[in-house]
Amino acid sequence: MINKVLAYAEQHALFTLTDKIIATVSGGIDSVVLCDILYKLKISFCVAHANFGLRAEESDADEIFVKKLAKKYNVPFYSEQFNTLEFAQQEKISTQMAARTLRYNWFEQLRQQLGYNYVATAHHQNDAAETILLNLTKGTGIAGLHGIAAKKAYLIRPLLCLTKDDIYEYVTENQLIWREDSSNESTKYQRNLIRHEVIPVLKNINPSLETTLNQTVEKIQGAEQIYLAYINEIKTKALRQEAGVTYLNLTPLREALALPVVLFELLRDYNFNYENTRAILETFEGISGKTFQSATHVLVKDRDQLVITSKDLRVYGSFEINLADEYFDQNGLKLKIHQLPAENYKIPRSRNIAALDLNLLQFPLKIRPWKEGDWFVPLGMNGKKKLSDFFINEKIPVNLKAKIMVLTSDKSVVWIIGHRLDNRFKVTDKTEQVLELEVQQ
């Protein structure tokens, strides 16, 4: 079984034996097998467990079990607890979609933070078959017809070469124990309904259902290569990314064949569905400002472009800068900080650099999201201006506004970071020391 997984990994270039991998482990039978196989392949890996808090004490017991499992293999253990129901209600999505969004967002954050190469999940052939049927039932693009990809960017599925029967055989041979998730038996979840009631009926027609679907997947993947070549041609013309923001130019999009399908493919990575796509298409000739939200992103129609920004699924708080700090790196914002003598200092002409009179500041300074009611005195002016009015004048799209941070001193806005200084804190001929803050891209 281990050699089969290794051969599959080599065939699909999933990983090498020198890579560092995050194993996503629920404590169920599939993820326990994934851990054991990675261990026996002598791969450097850690264990990541997402606790969704959906089954009270049972969820906490799962976390304890996985922590002990990591200790057994002598590998690092990481866990995160989520308020999944609150997030699902806020975004008006299913509990399963909420859990998926939260966990994959966290896995990727963890991968980048730890410097690991890949995130591995324990999906197998039966999962892939269920996914194809579920996607067909709910509606899908061509990507949904090949179920679960063996590799997508930094996400890998080494067990897709195994069936559920293979998994059971492995745990029997290796005497492994695992946790049973009681929710797996509940048919109130769509995937469980497919697993327990639909697939058994289809296997009466075709006992080799999983194998047949895998063969179909190979044909679909060939057709998809041709399809994606055209999508990528349009993408090259229409899409640009800058400072974490995606811009889609409407001019080349309007010339595309099968525009609803093309736009759906361009927006799919941002978790907008086909229904969203049709609604967005209706705004192409309309006025600016129409906003759409997926579970992970916000899209705004802004003149002749679509502007897409990601939501921050972490708690958005305020952060301090102390007098001795030389660098700030929190919540996606990086600042280089200098204290310089004012003599011979040349004030930079860049929105990404703030030159402030150090003696006018009260430490610690704070960095936080802007909020309604904030005001400042724009550089070069004497009168107060609300930040909300400033953003309108600057024609800043709604979803970019939501990501703007401010630097404050004793509750006064000192700098709208990346946009404009407050006139009260500027460097003058009376300044003795300059505090310079520079945004690092």
Automatic annotation (TrEMBL):
Reactions this protein catalyses: cytidine(34) in tRNA(Ile2) + L-lysine + ATP = lysidine(34) in tRNA(Ile2) + AMP + diphosphate + H(+)
Binding site for ATP: 26-31
Organism domain of life: Bacteria
Any one GO cellular component localisation term in the record: cytoplasm
Compartments, record wording: Cytoplasm
EC class of the enzyme, as a word: ligase
Keyword vocabulary terms for this entry: ATP-binding, Cytoplasm, Ligase, Nucleotide-binding, tRNA processing
Chief location of this protein within or outside the cell: cytoplasm
EC code: 6.3.4.19
Domain annotation Lysidine-tRNA(Ile) synthetase C-terminal: ranges: 365-437
Family in the record: Belongs to the tRNA(Ile)-lysidine synthase family.
NCBIfam families, per the entry: lysidine_TilS_C, lysidine_TilS_N
Entry function: Ligates lysine onto the cytidine present at position 34 of the AUA codon-specific tRNA(Ile) that contains the anticodon CAU, in an ATP-dependent manner. Cytidine is converted to lysidine, thus changing the amino acid specificity of the tRNA from methionine to isoleucine.
The protein's name in its UniProt record: tRNA(Ile)-lysidine synthase
Organism: Adhaeribacter rhizoryzae
Origin organism lineage: Bacteria, Pseudomonadati, Bacteroidota, Cytophagia, Cytophagales
Gene: tilS
